[in-house]
Design a protein that fits this description.
The structure is a single chain. This protein has a single domain (about 5-224), classed as P-loop containing nucleotide triphosphate hydrolases (Rossmann fold), CATH 3.40.50.300. The protein contains eight helices and five strands, in the order βαβααβααβααβα. A five-stranded parallel beta sheet has the order 2-3-1-4-5, sandwiched between helices. It has helices at about 15-30, 50-55, 70-90, 105-110, 120-135, 150-160, 175-190, 205-224; strands at about 5-10, 35-40, 95-100, 140-145, 195. The protein starts with a strand and ends with a helix. By secondary structure, the chain is an alpha/beta fold.
Length: about 220
Protein backbone atom coordinates (compact mmCIF):
# COMPACT_ATOMS: atom_id res chain seq x y z
CA UNK A 1 0.00 0.00 0.00
CA UNK A 2 1.31 3.41 -0.97
CA UNK A 3 1.56 6.03 1.79
CA UNK A 4 1.60 9.80 1.69
CA UNK A 5 4.66 12.01 1.87
CA UNK A 6 6.15 13.58 4.98
CA UNK A 7 7.91 16.96 4.77
CA UNK A 8 9.62 18.08 8.00
CA UNK A 9 10.57 21.65 8.83
CA UNK A 10 13.25 22.01 11.51
CA UNK A 11 14.93 25.03 13.05
CA UNK A 12 16.14 26.26 16.40
CA UNK A 13 13.95 28.52 18.52
CA UNK A 14 13.77 31.97 16.95
CA UNK A 15 14.65 30.74 13.45
CA UNK A 16 11.29 31.77 12.01
CA UNK A 17 10.10 28.18 11.74
CA UNK A 18 6.55 28.83 12.96
CA UNK A 19 6.05 31.67 10.47
CA UNK A 20 7.40 29.61 7.58
CA UNK A 21 5.29 26.62 8.65
CA UNK A 22 2.14 28.74 8.47
CA UNK A 23 3.11 30.06 5.04
CA UNK A 24 3.70 26.54 3.71
CA UNK A 25 0.37 25.38 5.12
CA UNK A 26 -1.34 28.33 3.39
CA UNK A 27 0.46 27.52 0.13
CA UNK A 28 -0.77 23.92 0.19
CA UNK A 29 -4.31 25.13 0.84
CA UNK A 30 -4.14 27.58 -2.06
CA UNK A 31 -2.88 24.82 -4.38
CA UNK A 32 -5.70 22.58 -3.12
CA UNK A 33 -3.26 19.83 -2.18
CA UNK A 34 -4.76 17.35 0.26
CA UNK A 35 -2.59 17.64 3.34
CA UNK A 36 -2.39 17.76 7.10
CA UNK A 37 -0.23 20.19 9.05
CA UNK A 38 1.10 18.88 12.36
CA UNK A 39 3.41 20.36 14.97
CA UNK A 40 5.49 18.88 17.77
CA UNK A 41 5.34 18.79 20.71
CA UNK A 42 1.54 18.53 20.70
CA UNK A 43 0.94 20.69 23.77
CA UNK A 44 -2.84 20.29 23.53
CA UNK A 45 -2.62 16.53 24.08
CA UNK A 46 -1.91 14.83 27.45
CA UNK A 47 0.90 12.90 25.74
CA UNK A 48 3.08 16.02 26.01
CA UNK A 49 2.93 16.13 29.82
CA UNK A 50 6.51 14.92 30.35
CA UNK A 51 7.77 17.28 27.65
CA UNK A 52 6.11 20.23 29.39
CA UNK A 53 7.54 19.19 32.75
CA UNK A 54 11.00 18.93 31.20
CA UNK A 55 10.84 22.30 29.40
CA UNK A 56 9.40 24.03 32.47
CA UNK A 57 12.46 22.92 34.45
CA UNK A 58 10.60 20.58 36.81
CA UNK A 59 13.28 17.90 36.50
CA UNK A 60 16.13 20.42 36.41
CA UNK A 61 16.48 24.04 35.35
CA UNK A 62 19.44 22.99 33.17
CA UNK A 63 18.53 20.96 30.07
CA UNK A 64 21.93 19.24 30.00
CA UNK A 65 21.21 17.62 33.37
CA UNK A 66 18.47 15.47 31.84
CA UNK A 67 19.66 12.21 30.28
CA UNK A 68 19.59 12.44 26.47
CA UNK A 69 17.85 9.10 26.08
CA UNK A 70 15.24 9.84 28.75
CA UNK A 71 14.39 13.25 27.29
CA UNK A 72 14.29 11.73 23.80
CA UNK A 73 11.69 9.28 25.06
CA UNK A 74 9.49 12.11 26.40
CA UNK A 75 9.25 13.53 22.88
CA UNK A 76 9.01 10.13 21.18
CA UNK A 77 5.95 9.16 23.21
CA UNK A 78 4.23 12.42 22.27
CA UNK A 79 4.98 11.82 18.58
CA UNK A 80 3.70 8.25 18.74
CA UNK A 81 0.43 9.36 20.36
CA UNK A 82 0.00 12.13 17.79
CA UNK A 83 0.58 9.69 14.93
CA UNK A 84 -1.88 7.08 16.18
CA UNK A 85 -4.58 9.57 17.16
CA UNK A 86 -4.38 12.34 14.58
CA UNK A 87 -2.58 11.63 11.33
CA UNK A 88 -1.87 7.94 10.69
CA UNK A 89 -5.07 7.55 8.65
CA UNK A 90 -4.29 10.64 6.58
CA UNK A 91 -0.76 9.46 5.91
CA UNK A 92 -1.90 5.99 4.88
CA UNK A 93 -4.57 7.55 2.65
CA UNK A 94 -1.74 9.22 0.72
CA UNK A 95 -2.19 12.73 2.14
CA UNK A 96 0.77 15.09 2.24
CA UNK A 97 1.97 15.63 5.82
CA UNK A 98 3.67 18.90 6.74
CA UNK A 99 5.40 18.74 10.13
CA UNK A 100 7.00 21.41 12.27
CA UNK A 101 9.63 19.41 14.17
CA UNK A 102 9.72 15.63 14.26
CA UNK A 103 12.00 12.74 15.26
CA UNK A 104 14.80 14.87 13.83
CA UNK A 105 14.39 17.33 16.71
CA UNK A 106 15.85 14.78 19.12
CA UNK A 107 19.02 14.77 17.03
CA UNK A 108 19.22 18.54 17.47
CA UNK A 109 18.30 19.03 21.11
CA UNK A 110 19.17 15.75 22.83
CA UNK A 111 22.18 14.33 21.00
CA UNK A 112 24.15 17.44 21.98
CA UNK A 113 24.12 16.27 25.61
CA UNK A 114 26.44 13.41 24.64
CA UNK A 115 30.16 13.49 23.78
CA UNK A 116 30.72 13.87 20.02
CA UNK A 117 32.30 10.43 19.98
CA UNK A 118 28.82 9.05 20.77
CA UNK A 119 26.83 11.08 18.24
CA UNK A 120 26.80 8.44 15.51
CA UNK A 121 25.69 5.77 17.99
CA UNK A 122 22.90 8.06 19.17
CA UNK A 123 21.69 8.71 15.62
CA UNK A 124 21.61 4.97 14.94
CA UNK A 125 19.69 4.40 18.18
CA UNK A 126 17.22 7.18 17.38
CA UNK A 127 16.37 5.79 13.95
CA UNK A 128 15.99 2.27 15.32
CA UNK A 129 13.88 3.45 18.26
CA UNK A 130 11.40 5.83 16.63
CA UNK A 131 11.20 4.56 13.05
CA UNK A 132 11.70 0.81 13.50
CA UNK A 133 10.46 0.09 17.04
CA UNK A 134 7.71 2.72 17.37
CA UNK A 135 6.83 2.53 13.69
CA UNK A 136 6.78 6.25 12.94
CA UNK A 137 7.09 7.15 9.23
CA UNK A 138 10.44 8.33 7.93
CA UNK A 139 10.44 11.81 6.37
CA UNK A 140 10.72 12.21 2.61
CA UNK A 141 12.59 15.46 3.20
CA UNK A 142 13.92 17.42 6.18
CA UNK A 143 14.58 21.15 5.88
CA UNK A 144 16.71 22.89 8.51
CA UNK A 145 16.34 26.66 8.78
CA UNK A 146 19.80 27.79 9.83
CA UNK A 147 19.75 30.99 11.86
CA UNK A 148 22.80 32.09 13.91
CA UNK A 149 22.02 32.05 17.64
CA UNK A 150 22.80 35.71 18.28
CA UNK A 151 20.18 36.70 15.70
CA UNK A 152 17.62 34.14 16.83
CA UNK A 153 17.96 35.36 20.43
CA UNK A 154 16.99 38.88 19.34
CA UNK A 155 13.98 37.49 17.48
CA UNK A 156 12.96 35.45 20.52
CA UNK A 157 13.19 38.49 22.75
CA UNK A 158 10.88 40.35 20.37
CA UNK A 159 8.44 37.44 20.46
CA UNK A 160 8.29 37.60 24.25
CA UNK A 161 8.16 41.41 24.36
CA UNK A 162 11.52 41.57 26.12
CA UNK A 163 10.51 39.19 28.94
CA UNK A 164 13.37 36.69 29.44
CA UNK A 165 11.25 34.78 31.98
CA UNK A 166 9.02 33.47 29.19
CA UNK A 167 11.86 31.42 27.69
CA UNK A 168 11.96 27.68 28.38
CA UNK A 169 15.10 25.86 29.56
CA UNK A 170 16.28 25.42 25.95
CA UNK A 171 15.66 28.97 24.81
CA UNK A 172 17.38 30.64 27.76
CA UNK A 173 20.64 28.66 27.49
CA UNK A 174 22.66 30.30 24.70
CA UNK A 175 25.63 27.93 25.04
CA UNK A 176 23.28 24.96 24.76
CA UNK A 177 21.64 26.44 21.64
CA UNK A 178 25.00 27.01 19.96
CA UNK A 179 25.80 23.35 20.53
CA UNK A 180 22.38 22.39 19.20
CA UNK A 181 23.09 24.28 16.00
CA UNK A 182 26.35 22.36 15.68
CA UNK A 183 24.49 19.08 16.23
CA UNK A 184 21.88 20.06 13.64
CA UNK A 185 24.44 20.82 10.97
CA UNK A 186 26.31 17.61 11.80
CA UNK A 187 23.12 15.55 11.42
CA UNK A 188 22.14 17.44 8.27
CA UNK A 189 25.37 16.34 6.63
CA UNK A 190 25.03 12.74 7.84
CA UNK A 191 21.36 12.36 6.88
CA UNK A 192 21.15 14.60 3.81
CA UNK A 193 18.90 17.27 5.25
CA UNK A 194 18.44 20.41 3.16
CA UNK A 195 19.94 23.43 4.95
CA UNK A 196 18.51 26.86 4.15
CA UNK A 197 20.54 29.83 5.49
CA UNK A 198 18.21 32.40 7.08
CA UNK A 199 20.63 35.30 7.53
CA UNK A 200 23.68 36.97 6.04
CA UNK A 201 25.45 36.64 9.40
CA UNK A 202 24.32 40.07 10.58
CA UNK A 203 20.58 40.16 10.05
CA UNK A 204 17.79 37.79 9.07
CA UNK A 205 16.81 37.44 5.43
CA UNK A 206 13.40 38.61 4.28
CA UNK A 207 10.60 36.22 5.27
CA UNK A 208 9.29 36.06 1.70
CA UNK A 209 12.70 35.15 0.27
CA UNK A 210 13.03 32.24 2.70
CA UNK A 211 9.46 31.18 1.96
CA UNK A 212 10.13 31.05 -1.78
CA UNK A 213 13.10 28.74 -1.20
CA UNK A 214 10.99 26.48 0.98
CA UNK A 215 8.18 26.34 -1.56
CA UNK A 216 10.70 25.33 -4.19
CA UNK A 217 11.82 22.40 -2.02
CA UNK A 218 8.21 21.53 -1.19
CA UNK A 219 7.24 21.38 -4.83
CA UNK A 220 10.08 18.96 -5.57
CA UNK A 221 8.74 16.52 -2.97
CA UNK A 222 5.11 16.86 -4.04
CA UNK A 223 5.68 16.38 -7.75
CA UNK A 224 8.65 14.00 -7.82
Amino acid sequence: MKNGKLFVLEGLDGSGKSTQFELLDKYLEEKKITHKAISFPNYENPSSSLVKMYLNGEFSDNATDINAYAASSFYAVDRYASYKLFWEKDYKAESFILAARYVTSNAIYQMVKLPKSQWDDYLNWLEEYEYSRLGLPKPDAVIFLDMPIDISQKLLLNRYNGDENKKDIHEINVDFLNKCREAALYTAKKQNWIVIPCSDGRKAYDIKDISNKLIGQLDKIIWE
